[in-house]
Amino acid sequence: MNIISAGYGSVYEEGQSISPPPEQGSCMLLLARTDAVFILDGAEEYLSAGALVLCGGGTDSTVCGDNGHLVCDWVCFDPEGDREALDASGLVTGAPVRYADPELVSRLIRSIAGEFYSLSSRRGKNLELLLRTLLLTASPPAGGDTQQSAEPHYSAMKELREKIYRTPQLKWNVDAMAAEVNMSRSYFQHIYRELFGVSCMTDVISSKIEKAKEILSETSCTVSQVAAMCGYDNEEHFMRQFKKTVGVTPTRYRKK
Length: 256
Description:
Number of strands: 9
CATH class of the largest domain: Mainly Beta
Low-confidence stretches: 143-150
CATH architecture of the largest domain: Sandwich
CATH topology of the largest domain: Jelly Rolls
Structural class: alpha+beta
Largest sheet: 5 strands, antiparallel
Order of helices and strands: EEEEEEEEHEHHHHHHHHH
Radius of gyration: 19 Å
Shape: globular
Oligomer: single chain
Strand content: 15-25%
Number of helices: 10
Number of domains: 2
């Protein structure tokens, strides 16, 4: 995926609006920080402050303030090249998602905007990882229920999931994760799957494999070193898990 532009705390006066870029297939993920109106193919829908909406993707969509100015955080991107990440998020164009704690999303968009305008030598890779994390954070719970504010543990669980992807080298297990959010083992597993549609250990494995792919692509570390850097004690176990997830061995992935 390629980020086209990003903005944090952008202000649009009454009568002004924001739309995805005109490029065919380009998308915009927008977090409304004030009440807004979302217009999709001519039909209007009210967005309360804190709502997140995916715009574009071949549709005619615009967001403006609701009888006043609009304040929003937004990221415009081209999903081609890694559309699987967008599809896996479960986000649907024109289907607003209401979050209990929009600051989780807002902080990520702020990081993306800062990195986008930076001169860092790792800018491209950092943006890719940040966007992937944003899509994971934005993904609605299983079953299509977007009323996430009804789940009292949502904010803590989202923060935990973000931490898992940020620190894949840690020895994450069910008991450790449950302790992070002060839940029993069984209740934690139930709530995690209910919110995110996957098991907690599936996310742990995904975080390790994504980190391994990054190291393999950008360094000359041996497979054994990569395994250790991603929290694996056993190189053979890492290689089996990598091939099962990615479809090729770590060595083959590096050559590609």
